[in-house]
Model the fold of this input.
Amino acid sequence: MTNHIAIRKAGGKWVVRAGGAVLAESTDALELSEGAYPPVIYFPRGDVAMAFLDASDTRTTCPHKGEASYFSIGTKSETLKDAAWSYEEPKDEVARIKGHLAFYSTEKVAVEQL
Done:
């Protein structure tokens, strides 16, 4: 594995909330730590209410993880553009995050451990 990336099972139950709705809840989330960046929680797709997410045309490339696809969150009052991402075909070194989504934790999207 890439020396500066570590993936482990995230302890406990994790939840994502936006616009007054619970978008994801999981006891099977993964925590990805990469260098000096804050850890990121990746939720299994099956634990995410995908009806709230719309695929975006945005793509970015990470030299260590591969190409990320983005999703916008539709709430009752607004669309939170590119608020979540997924590596549909991650590099072999981080293959554990395949089938998982991560969310930007902001004032409008809460990613919390219960």
DSSP finds no helices and ten strands in the chain. The CA atoms of residues 21 and 75 lie 8 Å apart.
